[in-house]
Amino acid sequence: MEMVKLSKFRGKMVVLYFYPKDNTPGCTLQAIEFSDLAEEFNALDTVILGVSRDDCISHAGFRDEHGLAVNLLSDEDGKVCEKYDVWQEKEKDGVKKMGIVRSTFIIDKEGILRYVEYGVIPPSHAAEILKLIKELSCKSQ
């Protein structure tokens, strides 16, 4: 329930992932997989931030219902989604509408964007990101 700025995490790696909606199958799977690996990410000095347009109350219920260990951020007005170009037209069953394209960004300890992936497919994605964090951590030492 507080404003979050990425600069707060300077000195840590940040995994910033955008997802369409709390409590939907793919979003739940993705959040659980990141949560299951939270200790490993923490050991690599990495913070995980999940962002959707759901409000904070929805995030709290989602977090509590699934025992999530990731930080969930609300972007109700969509400004952050627009900055990261994840608010895009999507088509489902022949109907076009705007929505969040599932996407992941890795920002290094100096605040430099090191990795971008749009159109993420949730199963095993968290493990793939953990592997990338390990590789980036080795390169920066």
Characterization of this structure:
This protein has 141 residues and is of the alpha/beta class. The protein has helices spanning 25-36, 38-43, 56-66, 79-83, 125-139, and strands at residues 13-18, 46-52, 71-74, 87-92, 95-100, 103-107, 113-118. It has one domain: Glutaredoxin. The chain is globular. The relative contact order is 0.22. The mean pLDDT is 94.
Structural class: alpha/beta
Number of strands: 7
Instruction: Outline the biggest β-sheet.
Output: 5 strands, mixed
What oligomeric assembly is this protein in?
A: single chain
CATH top level label: Alpha Beta
Number of structural units classed as domains: 1
Helix run count: 5
The named CATH superfamily: Glutaredoxin
CATH topology name: Glutaredoxin
CATH architecture descriptor: 3-Layer(aba) Sandwich
Element order: H for helix, E for strand? EHHEHEHEEEEH
Q: What's the rounded overall pLDDT mean?
A: 94
Helicity range: 25-40%
What is the strand content? 25-35%
The CA-CA distance between the termini, in Å, is 35 Å
Tag the structure with descriptive keywords.
five-stranded mixed sheet, alpha/beta, Glutaredoxin, 141 residues
Task: Give a short overview.
With 141 residues, the protein is α/β, with parallel strands linked by helices.
